[in-house]
């Protein structure tokens, strides 16, 4: 287990017990699925991920996640997408937290690829369009975005006076209102990736790029875009980020057939929510950076 992941998990309720049980879990999956395990991958936040070789001598990836809300639907979403824009699920255990996955090779991340930012953004948007292309079944067992957004609106409202009372009241109230209203006014519902940042889009053989590590929900597609737009090549490095933000959201609107103003509204709301989540764990510098993002997004969107 990478040390950073072990520290993250150990701080969670039940994390130490999970870490202690992990060798037995890996042994059970190795024996039950007839796998030969290879090197452990670095990165991630609360899962063990490593190379595996199947009984048919095929490359694969074994992933075992600490049981938590965001990971609960990963197997269901990958099964639903069936390789369209994402790696394929080969097997999962009974609780859905042990996954045997298609190996994504050569596996370099989009965030590390050479090229102009907007060309790389286009590649990421095309992956996102694939993930959104299939209408979700009514019985799909994924959490509704509306439920999560309502929870977040309440958390922002509670954390604001306690953690960052000096934050711009118009910005924070706008974000709370958007978290409450946007999920209820969506014109369509898709299976959301939930964390489509450029580190979760990898170069592959059967497709130029494939998504990994979803934190899936079902709901308004506009929710997904924020990390892809902001993490490829941060517009916040510019003296005036507004024109670049409007251009990139316009590109996203054209490729994804979603209104640019709605995409920007979702990104504003998500940046505020994430900022207060950072504040809640004491990461004030990171929280202030995301609140600055939210301000720039809101200004560019005219919110």
Automatic annotation (TrEMBL):
Gene3D superfamilies: 3.90.1200.10. InterPro entries: Kinase-like_dom_sf, NH2Glyco/OHUrea_AB-resist_kin. One of its GO terms (biological process) is secondary metabolic process. Transmembrane segments: none annotated. Pfam families: APH_6_hur. It comes from the Bacteria. This is Hydroxyurea phosphotransferase. It comes from Streptomonospora alba.
């Amino acid at each position: 287990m990478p040390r950073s992941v072990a520290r993250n998990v150990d701080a969670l309720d039940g994390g130490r017990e999970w870490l202690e049980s992990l060798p037995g879990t890996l042994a059970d999956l190795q024996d039950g699925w007839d796998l030969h395990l290879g090197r452990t991958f670095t990165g991630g936040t609360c899962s063990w991920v490593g190379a595996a070789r199947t009984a048919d001598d095929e490359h694969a990836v074994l992933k075992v996640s600490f049981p938590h809300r965001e990971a609960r639907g990963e197997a269901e979403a990958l099964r639903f997408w069936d390789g369209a824009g994402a790696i394929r699920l080969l097997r999962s255990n009974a609780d859905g937290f042990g996954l045997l996955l298609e190996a994504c090779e050569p596996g370099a991340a989009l965030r590390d690829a050479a090229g102009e930012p907007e060309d790389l953004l286009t590649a990421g948007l095309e992956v996102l369009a694939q993930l959104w292309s299939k209408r979700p079944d009514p019985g799909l067992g994924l959490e509704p975005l509306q439920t999560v957004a309502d929870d977040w609106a309440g958390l922002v409202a509670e954390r604001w006076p306690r953690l960052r009372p000096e934050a711009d009241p118009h910005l924070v109230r706008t974000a709370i209102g958007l978290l409450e209203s946007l999920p209820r006014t969506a014109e369509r519902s898709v299976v959301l990736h939930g964390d489509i940042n450029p580190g979760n889009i990898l170069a592959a053989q059967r497709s130029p790029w494939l998504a990994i590590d979803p934190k899936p929900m079902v709901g308004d597609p506009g929710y997904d875009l924020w990390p892809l737009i902001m993490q490829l090549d941060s517009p916040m490095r510019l003296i005036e980020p507004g024109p670049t933000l409007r251009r990139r959201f316009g590109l996203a609107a054209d490729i994804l057939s979603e209104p640019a103003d709605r995409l920007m509204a979702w990104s504003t709301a998500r940046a505020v929510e994430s900022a207060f989540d950072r504040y809640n764990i004491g990461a004030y510098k990171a929280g202030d950076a995301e609140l600055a993002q939210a301000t720039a997004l809101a200004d560019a969107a005219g919110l």
